[in-house]
């Protein structure tokens, strides 16, 4: 009962301190937000966002420290509580630095256009590195030697590696993808199993691919590394857009070629992504079909994402022009000869 009486005043002081500090925190955040809105740099916004949540832990630790000064609990308990407060501060500062480093890394890549892929894996590696350093500092403060921990990890490392074989394979495959730079965020790729789309993110375990149907395909990094991948954006983002055009056997092939070139050139500047260089070309290929003369019109797009739009717009324009020129697009047909006795 005596111990409970000793706690009344510290608990009251803690509650009052926490409430007062919370009000001060909110007021300071509002002031800093107004200041950040007036500045052009994003640094102040990043710092404010990074410390917003950890600052709650700082308030908690400070309130607890103030309450201890008003308490009459035994010295040994005060010593334990002081250690807890300092551990809370170390952990909160570690998380603040981790968040700050991750956001600064992300922002610097966007602003300076550094040729490094901005992925979840790289940000995770930065944060984990800072968290490990913070953990080592906390252990050192508690007087715990990390040498036995490292020894224990070395002994159990083999078992952990075997248990997490697939996870580690995906992790190192992700690192390999980033270092090699053959696949980057934003590239349009096609895997040998038919999966194709834009690379949205490369995380520590998987790569997310957004298909043209607006679906996401989650591919383990190890599978992606082992797959044969076509990257349409690796060197020059320009891609050819081949379009097969069929006309009847009664058509003038020279006139057809001329019309296809005229139509495709007339759409340059009107259809998004259609480029003038290289110029559109027409080839009488595949050539003689079962029911038609088959041509291939080849145009060029700025990026693969314009492929379907360009094909659609050119087909519509060619169809309208063929109608004006009375050029027939034939249906499949067969000629049957009946043998008479």
From TrEMBL:
Protein name: Mechanosensitive ion channel family protein
Positions of the Mechanosensitive ion channel MscS domain: 166-232
Molecular function per GO: mechanosensitive monoatomic ion channel activity
Family: Belongs to the MscS (TC 1.A.23) family.
InterPro entries in the record: LSM_dom_sf, MS_channel_1st, MS_channel_C, MscS_archaea/bacteria_type, MscS_beta-dom_sf, MscS_channel_2nd, MscS_channel_C_sf, MscS_channel_CS
Membrane topology: Multi-pass membrane protein
Compartment(s): Cell membrane
Domain Mechanosensitive ion channel MscS C-terminal: 243-329
GO cellular component, one term: plasma membrane
């Amino acid at each position: 009962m005596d111990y409970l009486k000793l706690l009344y005043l510290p608990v009251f002081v803690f509650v009052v301190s926490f409430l007062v500090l919370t009000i001060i925190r909110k007021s300071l955040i509002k002031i800093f937000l107004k200041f950040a809105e007036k500045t052009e740099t994003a640094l102040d916004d990043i710092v404010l966002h990074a410390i917003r949540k950890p600052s709650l832990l700082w308030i908690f630790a400070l309130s607890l420290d103030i309450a201890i000064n008003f308490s009459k609990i035994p010295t040994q308990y005060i010593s334990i509580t002081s250690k807890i407060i300092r551990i809370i501060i170390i952990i909160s500062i570690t998380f603040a630095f981790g968040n700050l480093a991750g956001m600064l890394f992300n922002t610097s890549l966007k602003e300076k256009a550094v040729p490094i892929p901005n992925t979840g894996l790289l940000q995770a590696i930065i944060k984990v590195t800072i968290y490990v350093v913070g953990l080592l500092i906390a252990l050192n403060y508690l007087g715990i030697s990390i040498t036995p921990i490292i020894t224990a990890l070395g002994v159990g490392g083999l078992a952990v590696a075997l248990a997490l074989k697939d996870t580690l394979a995906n992790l190192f495959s992700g690192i390999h993808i980033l270092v090699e730079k053959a696949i980057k965020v934003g590239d349009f790729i096609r895997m040998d199993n038919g999966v194709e789309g834009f690379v949205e993110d490369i995380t520590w375990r998987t790569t997310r691919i957004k298909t043209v149907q607006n679906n996401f395909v989650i591919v383990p990094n190890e599978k992606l590394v082992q797959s044969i991948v076509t990257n349409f954006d690796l060197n020059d983002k320009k891609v050819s857009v081949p379009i097969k055009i069929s006309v009847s056997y009664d058509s003038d092939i020279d006139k057809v070629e001329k019309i296809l070139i005229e139509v495709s050139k007339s759409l340059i500047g009107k259809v998004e992504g259609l480029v003038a260089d290289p110029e559109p070309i027409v080839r009488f290929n595949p050539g003689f079909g079962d029911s038609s003369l088959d041509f291939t019109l080849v145009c060029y797009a700025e990026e693969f994402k314009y492929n379907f739009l360009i094909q659609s717009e050119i087909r519509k324009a060619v169809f309208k022009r063929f109608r004006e020129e009375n050029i027939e697009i034939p249906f499949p047909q067969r000629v049957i000869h009946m043998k008479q006795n």
